C-alpha cells in the first residue's frame, strides 16, 4: 500500500501536522505499532485506532487499498476524512464532491466541538451495536452515524443563518440515507441511530447525550402549530423502533420508550412507556423505576415485558 503523501487537499495546521506525521509513519514499512505517540489523548486514540484498523483491513483485503487510502489513510485528521466521506456520499451529478468537501472542511476546522461529538458517536456505536466490528466499519458504512455527522454540519450552518445550504444538506441526507433531521434540531453527543432508516426529527426537537434511537422513529409535531413544537429527549434515553413521540413534550433522563409506541405526554425520568397510546409500566401510582444504568447505554429493550401482565404468546 502506498504511503501517504503531502498532497492532501486540506489546509495545514499544527494539530493536523502532528496527526499527519503519525499517519505517514504508521504506513511506512517497519513502523512499530508499539511506538508511543507523543501527547495522545483518549479522543485522539479513536483516530489512531481507525488507522490501525485500516491497515489490518487492507492486509486482509488488498483489493480495498485504494478505497481505504482515499477514505482514511491519506487524510491528515479525522475532520478531513469525515469531510471526504460525507462529500462522496452526498454528492450527485449536479452537486460535486469537491464543492461539498470544501464546505464541510471549512465548518469542521472552525468547529472542534463537532469532531469531539463525532468521536463520542463512534465510541457509542462501537460499544452499543454488536453488529459493529470496528470504528472503520462504522465510519465507512453506518448511515445512521454518517447522517448524524452531516446533521451536525448542517446545524452549525443553520445557526450561522446559512439556512439555504443547511436545508440542502438535509435534503441530500434524506435522499442518500433515508434519515430526515431538520438542521434546526439540537442533537447531543454519544448518539446511536441504529439502522436509522425512516428516522424523522423535527426543527425544534432536542436530543440529549448518550441517546439511542432505532429505525422508524419520529420526533414530530402534532399538526400545523409553529414555534417550539417538537419533543425534548433527555440524556440516556432509549427509543425503540417505530416509535412516534409527538408534540412539545419531555422524555425524562434515562427513560425507555418501547417499540411501536405513540407518546403524546411527558414521560418521567427512569420510567418505561409502551403502547398506543403509550402508558407507564406500573401506572402513575406505582411506576416502575429503571436501574441506574441508562437504557440508552444498556440497549435493554425487553425487560419491561415481565411487568406487562397481559403479555402472552
UniProtKB/TrEMBL annotation:
Q: Which InterPro entries match?
A: Hexapep, Hexapep_transf_CS, LbH_SAT, Ser_AcTrfase_N, Ser_AcTrfase_N_sf, Ser_O-AcTrfase, Serine_acetyltransferase, Trimer_LpxA-like_sf
Q: What class of enzyme is it?
A: transferase
Q: Where is the Serine acetyltransferase N-terminal domain?
A: 46-150
Q: Does the keyword Acyltransferase apply?
A: yes
State the superkingdom: Eukaryota
Give the matching Pfam families. Answer: Hexapep (PF00132), SATase_N (PF06426)
Keywords, A to Z? Acyltransferase, Amino-acid biosynthesis, Transferase
PROSITE patterns named among the record's database cross-references: HEXAPEP_TRANSFERASES
EC number(s) on file = 2.3.1.30
Pathway terms, separated by semicolons: Amino-acid biosynthesis; L-cysteine biosynthesis; L-cysteine from L-serine: step 1/2
**What protein family does this chain belong to?**
Belongs to the transferase hexapeptide repeat family.
Name of the protein this chain belongs to = serine O-acetyltransferase
Give the originating organism: Camelina sativa
Originating gene: LOC104743035
Amino acid at each position: 500500500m502506498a504511503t501517504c503523501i503531502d498532497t492532501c487537499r486540506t489546509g495545514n495546521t499544527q494539530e493536523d501536522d502532528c496527526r499527519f506525521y503519525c499517519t505517514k509513519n504508521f504506513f511506512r514499512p517497519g513502523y512499530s505499532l508499539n511506538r508511543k505517540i507523543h501527547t495522545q489523548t483518549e479522543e485522539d486514540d479513536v483516530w489512531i485506532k481507525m488507522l490501525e484498523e485500516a491497515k489490518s483491513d487492507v492486509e486482509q483485503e488488498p483489493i480495498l487499498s485504494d478505497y481505504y487510502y482515499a477514505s482514511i489513510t491519506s487524510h491528515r485528521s479525522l475532520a478531513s476524512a469525515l469531510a471526504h466521506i460525507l462529500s462522496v456520499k452526498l454528492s450527485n451529478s449536479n452537486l460535486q464532491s469537491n464543492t461539498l468537501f470544501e464546505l464541510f472542511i471549512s465548518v469542521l476546522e472552525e468547529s472542534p466541538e463537532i469532531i469531539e461529538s463525532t468521536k463520542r458517536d463512534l465510541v457509542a456505536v462501537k460499544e452499543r451495536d454488536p453488529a459493529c466490528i470496528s470504528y472503520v466499519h462504522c465510519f465507512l458504512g453506518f448511515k445512521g452515524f454518517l447522517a448524524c455527522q452531516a446533521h451536525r454540519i448542517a446545524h452549525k450552518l443553520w445557526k450561522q443563518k446559512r439556512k439555504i445550504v443547511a436545508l440542502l444538506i438535509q435534503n441530500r441526507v434524506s435522499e442518500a440515507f433515508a434519515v430526515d433531521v431538520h438542521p434546526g434540531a439540537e442533537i447531543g453527543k454519544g448518539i446511536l441511530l441504529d439502522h436509522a432508516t425512516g428516522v424523522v426529527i423535527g426543527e425544534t426537537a432536542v436530543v440529549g447525550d448518550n441517546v439511542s434511537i432505532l429505525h422508524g422513529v419520529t420526533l414530530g409535531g402534532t399538526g400545523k402549530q409553529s414555534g417550539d413544537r417538537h419533543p425534548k429527549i433527555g440524556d440516556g434515553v432509549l427509543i425503540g423502533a417505530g416509535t412516534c413521540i409527538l408534540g412539545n413534550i419531555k422524555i425524562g433522563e434515562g427513560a425507555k420508550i418501547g417499540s411501536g409506541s405513540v407518546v403524546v405526554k411527558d414521560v418521567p425520568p427512569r420510567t418505561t412507556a409502551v403502547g398506543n397510546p403509550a402508558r407507564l409500566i406500573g401506572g402513575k401510582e406505582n411506576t416502575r423505576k429503571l436501574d441506574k444504568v441508562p437504557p440508552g447505554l444498556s440497549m435493554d429493550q425487553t425487560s419491561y415485558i415481565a411487568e406487562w401482565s397481559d403479555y402472552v404468546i
